Each structure stands twice: as C-alpha cells, then as structure tokens.
Predict the structure.
Amino acid sequence: MLFLTVYAGLLWLGNIVAGEIHLSIHPSQGIIHLGHKKTFICKVEGGDVDTITWVLPSGEILEDGDQQENVKVTVSEYNAQLEVTASTMQVEGTYKCRSIGESEEDLENHVTISVIQDPIFQPFTMFQEFTEGSDAVVQCNVVGIPTPTMTWMYNQREITPSEHYQFQDNGYLKIQNIQPSDAGTYQCVGKIESRNVENVCDIMVNVRYAPRFVREGPQILYSWLGNPVHISCAVQSHPQANMTWSHNGTDLDATAQNSSIVLEVRLDSMDQFSEYVCTAVNALGKVSQSVSLREAGIPGSPQNLTAVPLSSGINVSFSRPEDDGGIPNLTFQLEWRQNSNQEWSRMKIDQEHYWIRKLEPYTMYMLRVAAINGKGMGAFSNTTLARTLSLREPDRPKVTSEMEEISNSIWIFFKDSESDGSKVLRHIISFKEVHDEKWNNVTVNGSDSYLLEGLNWASTYEVKIQAENSFGRSQSTYLNVRTLQRAPAAAVGEQRRLGTGGVVGIILVIFLALLVGVDALCYRTWHCGIFQCLSVHLLGRPNPGAK
C-alpha cells in the first residue's frame, strides 16, 4: 500500500514537471440550501490557459462578467468563479468548467448542484377552534426538500391513527367528534429521514361548547334566620358563559368570579327559605340549576358514648348523631362530674374523641355529650359511668434470701405489699459485687422467687429488688449476701488435694514397696537378703552359704 502511494505521488509530480494541465473545482460538493448562495472556484493547475469558461446545464457558455438570474461568472488569470443563488429548484444540474490547454486540447471538470431545504412551516393559523361534536381538521403546512414526512403529538405522546384520530393525505389531523377533553396544545412535526432533521410547531386547539355545571343535580342547603348564607354555582364553557341567580323569577345581585357566581342570602324572613335558580348562557346553549334553601334544625344526640378510665383521666369517644339538623359542621359539648350533687364540668370539642385529664384517681365519674350546630345544642347522650384507676405503684417488696447448700448460688424470695389493687406484673432484681460499679439486671415474670447462680466464692453481693405494675416501679428493697468460702470437693466435682504429710507418706510407701520387691528378688535368685535371714533363723531352713 505504501509503495502504491509513493508511486502515485511520483507519477503526479512527474506529470506536473512534464507540464500536464488540469482543472480543479472547489468545493467539490454542490449542495445548496434553498435561498442561499454558494461560490464554486475552477482553478487551472500545471500550466497556462488562454480562457476559462463555465457551461450551464442548458449548454449555455458563460464567460467573465456574464450574469443570469441566479448565476454569475467572474474570471481571473488562473481561475473562474461561479456564484449560484438557489432561489428556486431550477438551478439544479451539472455545471462544467472548460478551457483550452497549451496542447490545444479541451480541459474540463464539473460539479453537480442540488438544492435542499430543512423542514419549515408555511403561514397558517396557530390557534384553531372547533365546535363540540364536529369533525375537526387541524391544519399544519410544512415544506422541505425533499418533502418531509409529518407526525402529530399530543400530551407528549405520538398520535397513532384510530377511530378518533385520522391522518389526511396532506398531513392534516382529523379529530372525529371532537370534545372539550381534546382541547390543548398539539405538536406538528416535520421530518426528513434521509438527513435526520426535523422541525416542530405548536398548535393550540380550542373547543367551543355550551355551559355545563361542575356539580350536577339539585342541592339543598340549611341555615337559620339571622345567619347569612352564600350559595354558589360553577360552570365550564367556551366561550365563557353569562351567569345569573334568580328567586321567584327575579334576578338577584350576585358576585361573578371567573366561571362561578356567588349569591349572598341574608335570611331576614322565612320567605327566603325557598328555591334559588342559577342560569348560565353562552352562544352555544343555556343551562339552569336550582338550589333549595331550608331552615336548619338542632342536631340529635350523639351515639355510642364509651369511656376508658386511666389513672388520672378518662378517654371518651362517641359517634356523630344520625340527624345533624342539616348542618354537618358540628361541635360537641362534653360534660362530667363525680356525683349528682356537683355541677357539671364541660368542654367544647370538635372531634368525636377526647381525653379528660387531671381527674381524681380511683373515683367514679358521670359523663355525657351533646352535639351543637349553628341553630343550637341538641339533646345529651345517655350518661355513662367510669371509675378512674389508682395512681400508686407497688410498695417495696418484702425480701428474704437463702444460701444453696454446697454451691455458690443464692435463693431470693419476695412478697408484695399493698399496691391499691393494681396487680404486680413483674419483679426487677439488680445485683453486683460490692467493689463493682456495674449492676446486673434480671426481670422475673410470674414468680415469687429467683435463684442467683454462678456467683463468685467468698464474695459479698449487693442485691436490690423492685416490684412493677402498670403505673410504675416501687422503691427498692436492698440485701447484702455472702457466698460460701469454698464448696466441698464432691459438690463441685473436684478431687481432694493432698497436703505435705500425704505426699511424704506416698513417697515412703513407694520406697517400702521397692525395698520389699528387691529383697524378694534377692531371696529367690541369690538366697540372700532379709527374707533369707528370717527363713534361716526363724524357720530353721538350711543356709546355702554366705553370699
């Protein structure tokens, strides 16, 4: 490959040296955007020529200074410039640069010019409006070279053909039976796939429709004399509707607020408790809706009153009355007392539960509750009784201890004192050696004794015991206990240790056994030793001879 490159270069140099003349055109690519200009330079290389000309696609020759509607030629000694204005597609074609060389041979090169255009949108209505129920055609005019393809977007999603959406041959979007929910911003997208270029245009689509109420159906409102009430109605429509309130056929002054209208009724007389009509009108239709204003009543009594006693209070809960008198925004009056001779204590609350605090412990209370609306307070609920609980934690437990025989464990026994009827739930035992700082804690549930095991020998321990019920822990009862000096060996699985006398005795026994063994060996083998002496002198056996 390197050899071929070098060879081609030498051949090119040789041709230049030999005086070969040729024409080059810069730039060699003839792509021009529609409406833009581009200049092409035809240059003589390798020699001299007399003239340089450009030949149009039609065959017409243009020399220095020649000019047509979209083409202009300027020639100098060594080059000729062709300026092309792509005002129309008609400038497309093959343009030739031509001259006569020193050898009187024609020299020629060419460039092919093509016109392109990115997608652009031609003038059209950016705000398009249609009537509800019609078949709407949303227009969008996009052009480009080559012709772009068109797609549509709505709510950031590409629209695909369906029974509701259809694409026409010219790229327009047809919306069958358009509805107010179809209103919004649509995006028309023009794209040239071959060059991967696109352009996007936003189109606002509005839908005209007759007024419709936001809240459908008749309404009933409750109030009472002297209490002003505000009645409102709201509609959706396009264009905006004209709204009015009327009573017995007479229009009333009301306050319009965008797509709603508010009427204030002062309720000075019973005649005002009647029907009020809201009417909305635009160019596409008219709708009316009535509101019935009625006199409110006092609420019924709350239901299901329950009381859960605590140590210094009572948790009260109940359900709303079945009849709220037409006014659902209720408050409640909660009352309580210790006996029928006392005045009721009372509290206004806005929920169906309340915690009455700071009551006397272990005391019976009477409780009741009533509902209140703007018209007044209703009947009280049935009275409920509840006794508060004791505040007391247990007294100190009575504690005894007992040492386990031949072990390093101690039994702790506890007996509870008075706790005002509140059951003791557990005992907490804490213990440590007197010289330690950290306490060890044990919780004992459902038992009146506990065995402290694994204690150190000959050690003094501090022990404290507390009783606990639902209200807290008692004060501590303290004990000081001491473990044994040392357990018998059998008690802990140890062997007895020998003293100095025992060791000496064992050594003497071993020495005596060796002495008897050696003497017996001498007696049997060599007929000498202590045994031999005893047998001769005491038993009268003959002496085999001194050895």
